[in-house]
Amino acid sequence: MAARSLVVYGLAVFLFLSGYWHIRRPVQTEEWLSKPSVIRGIGVLLLLIAVPCVVWRGWFFEVLAALLVASGAWRVCFPRHSIQTQRLVYPRWIHGCLLFAGAIAILLLKP
Euclidean distance between the first and final Cα of the chain, in Å? Predict the structure, then answer.
């Protein structure tokens, strides 16, 4: 399997599992994701996932890289703001649904 496919499928699986966890375990998710150190770690992970996307060309990887960098940088630089904003805008289960939608979009649009 090509490296690009591994990144795409790996990210989709990560989003599906994360969405499932947000929906099935909202209290535990809230407990974990209320810690700035955890949010920073997730931000670093998103930035690392963005690295190959920055190197690879094409609209899919450019859009994916931009979204990953924006989301990751926000979490790394402003973890408390990220936590507060997510709490105020919508509940965890909605965030889980958005993660599911992101995974489905990645699988439908993959190159």
Answer: 14
Strand extents, DSSP E, the chain: none
Q: How far apart are CA 80 and CA 69, in angstroms?
A: 18
pTM: 0.87
Do the beta carbons of residue 43 and residue 76 sit within 8 Å? yes
Structural tokens at position 51: 């690295």
pLDDT in the model for residue 87? 87
Q: What is the 3-state secondary structure (H, E, C) of 48-79?
A: HHHHHHHHCCCHHHHHHHHHHHHHHHHHHHCH
Residue with tokens 């690009």: 4
